[in-house]
Protein 1
Amino acid sequence: MKNIIVGTDFSLGSEKALSFGVMLANNTKADLTLLWVDDSPSELATFEYQEVRKEGQEEIDELVKKYEPLLKTGKKINTKIRKGRTYRELTDFAEQTPDSVLVMGTHGVTGFQKYWIGTNAFRVIATANVPVITVRASHNTEKKIKRIILPIDHTSVTLNKVEKASQLAAMLGADICLLSINESGLRSVQKFVDVNLNKAANTLAKKDISHIIEHVNSPNIGKAIIEHINSLQADLLIVAVELQEKTRNGMPSALMQQLINFSPVPVLSIHPNIE
């Protein structure tokens, strides 16, 4: 991770995302960029458009003034303004930036954007070929990440997020809880879960990443994962992106939306095709 990109709409949620980005930059020595997408209507008169841009730039300047002194690496907060559809501009910029992670807030209503979580955060997660961290306004963003929850299920793609998780854990000096999940409760399914669990544990052991293993057998996996986050005092949840089936909008699955909406810690979403 060399570049942290924080998307802002100037809401409380996105300011918390910037606070989290600063904490992450301090612990990874990555560069930090604050990005605002101007999605104002093209029908605006010239003077109205200039006012929007001016106000946006003033908001960015205030955020930089507030958070740049908190960077312990001696680096500056880079800023960027792009024009267009929010989720497309965020994903395009992140994908054009080498070895990047995109950080977004998930709540807030402002004069610039309306509903960040419903229209933009989920679309970014569904389409971005970079890791995406979502941060709720209620999260404690100054706390260092010491424990990461990594759910492991019966599918073949569940192991694709282990490499990124181990890299991040090594950079942060964090341990990982491998959370074995079986929604069906079937023993035949558990056999596949156990195979994946052993592979994940072996990968972490080879990389000398401290880890523990917990098991969840529940028809309500989302609730069970959140309960384990609380009981284990975890600081980050890492999930693989799953999209809804039989839909045209390509939105994240109901489980992913539940976790992103209600997780007591930030959620790092990784597409299965990300190396």
Protein 2
Amino acid sequence: MKIGILSDTHDDVAATTKALELIRAHSCELLIHAGDLCSPFIARLIKDSGLPHAAVFGNNDGDRVLLSSLIDIRPAPRQVQAGNTSIVVFHEPFINDYVDPQRVNLLIYGHTHQVSVEEKGRMLMLNPGTVSGVLAPAKTCAVYDTASRKVEIIEL
């Protein structure tokens, strides 16, 4: 199964639209958003994408009631099961060191706007960067393949 991963979209409708198109082009079956959508504009794009999805709130997500009425978004940490892959999603990386790599296959986080792919035991820790490109060298998202356990960082 391929999973499309977004974070820190920060109301950038054009970049989020492009990221969703690329995720669909990669035949992703699930979309995960690691927080900081910011407004309902991005939530509506996710909803309208038709992809099953799971998201967590980021520190800049204001109207949590409205966002949660549009998409499947919850406070972090969030556990997601995708086939045989156990996933934990956060926005801020403050507790990454406390997640047990024996119990989790993929840890997804955002907040820093910097792409990061690290292995900790058998767990992959992934920050897809920022779709909005704010405070980053590029606008990025990611695709994770649960079969090969490989991640592809996609520049928008």
Protein 3
Amino acid sequence: NNTIANNWVGGVGARGGGLCGCGGFIANCIIWGNTSYGMGGAQIYSCDTPLYSCIQDWAGGGIGNISAEPMFVDPANGDYRLLDGSPCIDAGDPDPEYNDACLPPGKGTERNDIGAYGGPHNCGWISDYYHYYFNSGEDNWQFVGDLPYFSPASSVREPGHIGLSANGSSNCFSYWYSPDVWIEDGKLYRSRWLVSSSASNPDDTVQFRLRVNQKGSWQSWTRVVNSFNQQAPSASEPKWYDLFFDPRVTTNEDSGVTFSFDIMSIYPWDDANSWIYLEEMMVDEARVSTSTEILRYDFAGDNEGWQFAGVISPYDEPITSSAGGHLGLSPAGSTNCFSYWYSPDVGIEDAKLYLARFEMSSSILDPDEVVQTRLRVNQKGSWQGWIRVVNSYNQQAPAAAEWKTYDIIFNPDVTASTDNLAVFSFDVMSFDPADATISWLFLESLTLNEIDVSP
């Protein structure tokens, strides 16, 4: 139950033209689309006769073998699950010993599906839904250059990565964005990003931002990596960054997300002539195995150490409340209002996964009229941020009759003593004249849990 597909290997022509040398036994496997210099069409060599496998151009006999197109979901983007109707579904060894243990990822009946998503060990996968290697333009990522008020970045698409440069400007913002990616309600997803830089010193790397934007409701999960800390990559040390998200899918529009790789050159001391590169990006499903509450704010008696940020130029200041068992913010009628409450410092640890759960309400009945609110976790020291935005013009907003919870899942990188603190923020952003700007938003509670993810 392996899938070996769309690989290129050099230097095997002397092996008789074959690509995959197993030196033994193949069963319930897909071997398809592999090429090499001087290969001559064969997919395997030096193997016993395979059984119940799907092998391109196979004409070697054996029991249960097929050579029909396996019908992968999206092989160009690394998704090698089987489409409905694939000839590999229920085509593996019929002995119950080889049955699919879990449906899904197995399809059809419990009989073995040929390939990696079938068989007795198919439970517990972190399903690799999308994988971008940027080896060609087939990944369909697109560049957005000229944005109002900012200088455009330069972009490059080269074998193995996509890149951005600020062209020496300290007022640059542009980005690459992915095709739509389809997700399901109630699942936890992880996006992993491998980023490199042409700068030899990570302190010189320009600021970049990694985003997951949920379509329809326009909720966003954002990670910012600044240039002035060791969290940034360098020419000699590419780095991985993870963004976890758990979407709330209530309409068809909500089932799509888009990923973005942004450059934000703001600081004059950055090496703004350098390049940053997205080398690889993948999306998979994760599962929470345990969760332990380590902190809770319920504002039952007072503001519990939270502070109001006050006037932030050039915006109007909201009015605030810390009575009634919650924190409150109101634009007081203004459509140019932004400010926030923020928590005391909270200690966090390296390589742990945290879930911050915000419980929200508002003073009005129609969620479409609720002003925009932003929920943030900011890592101090390195100033990395994980952000969730809840807009007023969708049913994701809270209402007086329907409180809602919003989760931010984050895994900090703690490399210095200044990195082991986080601050939580509850913001109001009133910009839409259609909103009920005299209404109130309330943060009812915040809990912080440490969670474990099982494969």
